[in-house]
Design brief:
The complex is a heterodimer of chains A (215) and B (139). Chain A is an alpha+beta fold and 215 residues long. Chain A contains 5 helices and 14 strands. In chain A, strand 4 (59-64) and strand 5 (67-78) form a beta hairpin. Chain A is flat. In chain B, helix 1 (45-58) packs antiparallel against helix 2 (112-123). Classes of the chains: A alpha+beta (215), B alpha+beta (139).
Chain lengths: 215, 139
């Protein structure tokens, strides 16, 4: 995976009002942590960080005050309405040390089961792996062309990639093909029924009738 | 299928106000594509069902539609030509309370082109302005 350079500045703006002002100036607040060193609050330029995010790289070489530090993009917070990046978490890494990271799983090919009228359910869209920072793959491809109806692919059946270890549960289902569910026909009486009120106190007549039933 | 709760604690509820943006249910979680509301609104069970039917007519067999909202709130009304007073009216219909940013529907197992077509059909049934959103990739 490519390591891209990113300029960052130390920031003093901490509180939400100050951080909001920072965002208005085209900066993204960030933090750098890890390796039992002190946390460093940073800010990066939005127009410099955007292309890095687009390139799908996970590793950056942060330039902070003439000092360079390699870091992993650990988390990105978004505004889900404007799609603007709100905050970035960088984690310090050592290039010789293994890291745990979530990677996208991509399905390749058309399943035999789907051709027969089955429905494909892609349960696990990301998987946690352990590998060296330099060996982080962009995505892991899963071939599903032989997947028949009623069959599934588990984590233990995923392709073996050199230098990568799957951390997720080995028996967890990644993708499965099943029969399409038939639509239940609900009787009309049930459709018109009112919801049951759980706090309703039974009236006097009803109470007697209920106790009579129990006896 | 009529959308309403099976069991409720109280039959009638106060109207309430819709404040702020959605802080949950605001990302695509189950499918690859979603339809996001950009306005606050009450979406009735009938409108949600109309959206589901419109989508099912367009989706191929392998496509899967998920409705992310549920009408939990009852709306009551008084019969016409009734004098005021004499207590709150009877529940008439059920609504889902939607804030800006809420993902209403999700689709998986189809191409982006078909997903856009499907959501376009659903959008015509919705009482709010909506937008098409994709699932956000890792980091």
């Amino acid at each position: 995976m490519e390591i891209l350079d990113l300029k960052a500045e130390k920031r003093t703006a901490v509180r939400s009002k100050a951080v909001r002002k920072l965002r208005d100036c085209g900066q993204v607040p960030a933090i750098l942590y890890g390796h039992k060193l002190d946390n460093v609050m940073l800010s990066v330029k939005e127009d410099e960080f955007g292309p890095i995010l687009q390139s799908r790289t996970r590793m950056v070489l942060l330039a902070i005050d003439n000092k360079k530090e390699s870091a992993l993009i650990k988390d990105v917070q978004y505004d889900n309405i404007t799609d603007r990046v709100l905050h970035v978490d960088f984690s310090r890494i050592n290039l010789d040390e293994k890291v745990r990271i979530r990677v996208q799983l991509e399905l390749v090919g058309e399943s035999v089961g789907v051709k027969d009228g089955g429905v494909l359910t892609h349960t696990m869209k990301e998987i946690e792996i352990e590998c060296l920072p330099t060996a982080i793959p962009e995505k892991i491809k899963v071939d599903i062309s032989d997947l028949g109806k009623g069959k599934s692919v588990h984590v233990k059946e995923l392709p073996v990639v050199e230098g990568i270890q799957y951390v997720s549960d080995a028996d967890a289902v990644v993708v499965s093909v099943h029969r399409p569910a038939e639509e239940k026909v609900v009787p009309e009486e049930e459709l018109m029924a009112e919801p049951e009120v759980i706090t309703r106190k039974p009236k006097e007549g009803e109470e007697e009738a209920e106790s009579g039933k129990k006896a | 299928m009529r959308l309403m709760p099976k069991r409720v604690k109280f039959r009638k509820s106060q109207r309430g106000k819709i404040k702020g943006n959605a802080t949950r249910c605001n990302t695509v979680a189950f499918g690859e594509f979603g339809l996001q509301s950009l306005e606050p609104a009450w979406i009735t069970a009938q409108q949600l069902e109309a959206g589901r039917v419109a989508a099912s007519h367009n989706l191929p067999k392998e496509g899967k539609l998920t409705i992310r909202v549920f009408p939990h709130k009852s709306v009551s009304s008084k019969p016409i030509e009734t004098r005021m007073g004499k207590g709150k009216g009877e529940p008439e219909f059920w609504v889902a309370v939607v804030k800006p940013g809420t993902v209403l529907y999700e689709v998986s197992g189809v191409s982006e082109e078909i997903a856009i077509q499907t959501f376009n059909r659903i959008a015509h049934k919705m009482p709010v302005t909506v937008r098409f959103v994709r699932r956000r990739k890792t980091v």
